[in-house]
């Protein structure tokens, strides 16, 4: 009697291709195997990676916090319609006990948020990956929820990426998202921190293809390439050599100099016109 094969519980996204298992070659040491796996992961567009800049945070997003004694991730319970801080140690299997925090990936769709942004905007919106799609929001009192289907100012977050790779999320009230320990040793999300400390720093992971997409977009902007493939040098120079996204911004002193130059220029023109008129009167 043949035994039924156990069904895999690994999280998969729509369009994700199944990986082929590779047997270890004879004489192959562990280090070369790890290098080969890293290369395969780099080539796989669905690999979970850390963003290097705020513009790279887009698409499916996995948010973790290195809490003690167990790291947690921000999860949305679509059944109860509320945010849950899920303990990642509960997801450990026999083969995952050796994984450190930065090697963790989501095991359930409820652990994934979808990051969107308006083109050119520094702020992002975080929408739940399950249920009807609700946005992560924070009110003026610092209460964090995910129960709104429309986005507004309270659903906007500004990601700040630190040199060590960790990310802080600032809301519209210029306060930071943080992990808060409540009675009984459980945790909750708050959005009223004035400064960034340990509780306000998160590890954020995105998929490799979205990181590459952000890189290509930024590269095109720097090169000043338009849709027809021609370099718009004038527009590029104005955007990247001036503040305010192409709008010329000068200091107060420069404004005074410009004003004085214009005034002197108008006086010089008036004198020239006066002299020309006098010469013409003499010959009349």
UniProtKB/TrEMBL annotation:
One Pfam family of this chain: FRG1
Residue ranges that the Swiss-Prot or TrEMBL entry lists as coiled coil: none
Location of the region described as Disordered in the Swiss-Prot/TrEMBL record: 1-51
One Gene Ontology term of the molecular function aspect: actin filament binding
Cleavable signal peptide: none
GO cellular component, one term: nucleolus
Subcellular location: Nucleus, Nucleolus
Record Gene3D superfamilies: 2.80.10.50
Feature: compositional bias, Basic residues: 8-22
Keywords from the UniProt entry: Nucleus
UniProt xrefs under InterPro entries: Actin-crosslinking, FRG1
Keyword Nucleus set for record: yes
Family per record: Belongs to the FRG1 family.
Annotated protein name in UniProt: Protein FRG1
Source organism: Fibroporia radiculosa
Lineage of origin: Eukaryota, Fungi, Dikarya, Basidiomycota, Agaricomycotina
């Amino acid at each position: 009697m043949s035994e039924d094969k156990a069904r895999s519980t690994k999280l998969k996204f729509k369009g994700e291709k199944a990986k082929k298992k590779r047997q270890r070659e004879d004489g192959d040491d562990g280090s070369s195997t790890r290098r080969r796996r890293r290369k395969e992961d780099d080539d796989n567009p669905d690999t979970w990676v850390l963003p290097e800049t705020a513009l790279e945070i887009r698409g499916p997003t996995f948010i973790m916090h290195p809490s003690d004694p167990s790291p947690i991730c921000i999860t949305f319970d679509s059944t109860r319609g509320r945010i849950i801080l899920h303990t990642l140690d509960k997801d450990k299997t026999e083969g995952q006990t050796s994984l450190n925090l930065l090697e963790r990936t989501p095991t359930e769709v409820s652990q994934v948020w979808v990051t969107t942004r308006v083109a050119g905007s520094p702020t992002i919106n975080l929408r739940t990956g399950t249920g009807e799609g609700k946005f992560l929001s924070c009110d003026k009192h610092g209460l964090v929820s995910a129960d709104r289907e429309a986005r507004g100012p309270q659903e906007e977050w500004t990601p700040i990426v630190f040199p060590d790779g960790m990310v802080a999320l600032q809301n519209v009230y210029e306060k930071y998202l943080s992990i808060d320990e409540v009675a009984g040793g459980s945790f909750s999300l708050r959005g009223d921190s004035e400064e960034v400390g340990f509780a306000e720093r998160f590890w954020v992971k995105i998929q490799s293809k979205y990181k590459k997409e952000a890189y290509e977009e930024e590269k095109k902007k720097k090169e000043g390439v338009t849709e027809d493939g021609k370099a718009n040098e004038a527009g590029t120079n104005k955007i990247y050599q001036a503040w305010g996204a192409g709008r010329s911004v000068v200091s107060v002193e420069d404004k005074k100099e410009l004003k004085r130059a214009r005034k002197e220029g108008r006086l010089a023109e008036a004198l020239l016109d006066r002299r020309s008129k006098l010469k013409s009167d003499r010959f009349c």
